[in-house]
Sequence to fold (1005 residues):
Amino acid sequence: MGSAFLCIFLVLCSYVTVNGGYIKYNTGAGVVEGKLNVHLVPHSHDDVGWLKTIDQYFVGSNNSIQGACVENVLDSVVVSLLRNPDRKFVFAEMAFFTRWWYEQSEEIQETVRKLVDAGRLEFINGGWCMHDEAATHYIDMIDQTTLGHRLIKKEFNKAPRAGWQIDPFGHSAVQAYLLGAELGFDSVHFARIDYQDRAKRKEDKTLEVIWRGSKTFGSTSQIFTNAFPVHYSPPNGFGFEVDDFSIPVQDNPYLFDYNVEQRVNDFVDAAIVQANVTRTNHIMWTMGDDFQYQYAETWFKQLDKLVHYVNKGHFDGRVNALYSTPSMYVDTKHATNEEWPLKAHDYFPYADRINAYWTGYFTSRPAFKRYVRLLSGYYLAARQLEFLAGRSSSGPNTFSLGDALGIAQHHDAVSGTAKQHTTDDYAKRLAIGASETEATINLALSCTSSKNSGQCATSKSPFSQCQLLNISFCPPTEEDIPEGKSLVVVAYNPLGWKRTDFVRIPVNDASLVVQDSTGNPIEAQYLKLDNVTVNLRNFYTKAYLGKSPENAPKFWLLFQVSVPPLGWNTYFISKASGKAKSRSGYITVMDSPQNDSIEVGPGSLKMSFSSTTGQLERMFNSKTGVDLPVQQSYLWYGSSDGGLDSQPSGAYIFRPNGAPPTVVSRSVPLKVMRGPLVDEVHQQFSPWIYQVTRLYKDKDHAEVEFTIGPIPVDDGVGKEVITRMTANMVTDKVFYTDSNGRDFLKRVRDYREDWNLSVNQPEAGNYYPINLGIFTTDKKSEFSVLVDRATGGSSIKDGQVELMLHRRLLFDDIRGVGEALDETTCVENTCEGLTVRGNYYMSVNLVGDGAQWRRTTGQEIYSPLLLAFTHEKLETWTASHLTKGTTTEPNYSLPLNVAVVTLQELDDGDTLLRLAHLYEAGEDAKYSTLAKVELQKMFRGKKIKEITETNLSTNQEKSEMKRLNWKVEGENGDETAPLRGGPVDNSTLVVELGPMEIRTFLLKF
Fold:
């Protein structure tokens, strides 16, 4: 009996082990009417740097920090897609894909092309990275997107249809209409919206909306917008990465833990939960997460089973599961003919729970933010010069800088939220790109300015540039000018209109003569170098260059220059001789205040300071009659250590400790320096905050240079440093901030238009991202402040404007980066907290008149004059070089409401031209009008043979773009059509631009 039982047991065991059986899963389901359709979208969110560098993430190194390898993701996804033709996968970050693509064999590349053609592998977003939306400038957003889109077009002849901004920490209006609708996207998808906003939208079923980010364009640039119910990961229990804890579908009845019915019921339950907060019978499940699908089959095996068993209908029958993509999902949504709620403005600021506003990253790593913005303008100018000289097939070019800037726009890069070693890697890439681009510029300037056509063929240039000019380090200007020679200064103007500006360079000699391009002497002014700049120079040149600089120069030499549009002008500086010595320039002297109030300013704009407290008291413009009491001071918020709810202030999150901000100093030592070109007011607010306010002749604003750091933290308190301007204005809680340097959005303190705000952080919850500026108005005047980098700002009380300029924190804010934001710089064995130097700009105007200053000056800040230096005899230089030149016809200038966003010779020989109208509809009576640009006059000596208008990223012709028309709740069809430019006549080649319009063209010469 016992032997017979044992025999039967062994036979059963053998049957279980051997005869589980092959199951062919039916995974080809499409949409089923009358059922709830669950669109399964397999994806991997691959940060272009965060805890590891981009290359570490790609190859899978440094896994002690994070086990992530994007190379494995792409390798294994391709294999898994080939196993089942119904499977789909979407991919976003082209900086990773391009690394992988060019390592593949021709056979693999051809296989991938077939997968893309079949819609099984779909590119979504398709930029170099998934860019941030708070700290990015619109030109950088366009450039990095264009890099990726052109690669996709070249290799696959495809144009992405879906925006996929799933992880950025808030979402901008510019993203909606410019980096969405104007690209040709049908939709944009993301996870992060404010927790209060999400709760209200789930209740109202308004997570999915039609978003109109532009007041100017209205419905003509709207986009379907899908905010996920929770996150960009799957519902709980349905993540199938190899190390995930989710229970797999076990469908072999001869193995233990058979669970098909339970897993199907779990699936249906989760689908019903999401359907209850979503309109129509279609919902999307984002089947992936950070760096998932490293072994893709672990996902796809489970998804195959889920699609198969959910759709068999034996267990429930209400739900249909299908492999899908965002574009498929949106097409089905559109086909339902549903009316959708309307969304305007943006999704800032973002909090993921109470007391956790992600508004600190608007300012985090301010030095890196400045470096990105500086190189953004540099890259724009460099591509113009590369076009003017003719792109070389060999030698240096601008691509490496474009690549580095594309990576730097990532939502953990320019945002300031990556680990320190990763941020160092971003900066290193930028520095390498800047170095190669500097060589490109020097060669291009030599070529375009030389009278000898052979100069363009040489690989040598006499020019050098000064990347550390802001801390007075510029070897070519500091050197003793050789006998009989001049310091040659070539200034290039990337703007489309003539500009008059000031050049400021360090020199050691106060007996110099400055001459213009025709040899006529011009007025100059000398200012002694302050000790703060000298100390910065000594420490940071050693930190950056690894060597101690020569003795600091004695003076700043200042002179006024005039440069034609898209052109250059040359200035000569030489040693004075004989009588000329007494006429060489004005040496600035320090003023000794005699009255209670000190008035400064050589032009129409004046500022008054108290001789008692050293503080600003008033701004007055004699030209406009605006007279505004204004006080300016520095304060710092003490950073929360987490308190009772364990939420500290950190790289992402701004959370003050609850105490009022501390005023740095109520009495400020003050020095006044006066001269014919500029007056300077030097203020020492503390040993670690120094400020110089400059008022230039012929400028209607004050330039404020701040030097902040090292921020002291020996008291155990992290500090978030602000400058606060308090004007005597009645502003009724209203202020305005820009969206990525384009539109200005109305902000109302303690208010959200989409829900009733519960205020728990009155400072952090009222901070907004700033890339161009912030302003306030009342019935009489406007007070405006422009910035030189991305930052955060607000108006916490009526009449106030504040900017956060620097942060040094002691705690991690528990959002994944795992480091406190405590930036230090080391020289040999000496380390200290980071010192930041930068500028902001203040202006007062009559109400309604501030836009012209904001738009024009904003362009000048973003695109400063590009300076190149060499030494040569004046006569020799003028004989061999054109001292002044421009790409445009003589006396032709672009309108003051138009900017040249891109002028670039592409790899295929076409020239990419983007023109942008700078004003919104109704923003300014004079300039919010139709503008016209005459292309043939813009390109003197070049014949335009062919012109093609394209979408923003050049991957499809404008005439071929298709838009989905959506029904919107409450619409009655009476919207006024926006003013847009008409088609370009090939005979006249005149481009028209309506307010806020950006038009993109490919030209053949």
The first helix runs from residue 2 to 18. The CA atoms of residues 21 and 252 lie 8 Å apart. The chain has 19 helices and 50 strands. Residues 1-18, 579-583 have pLDDT under 50 and may be disordered.
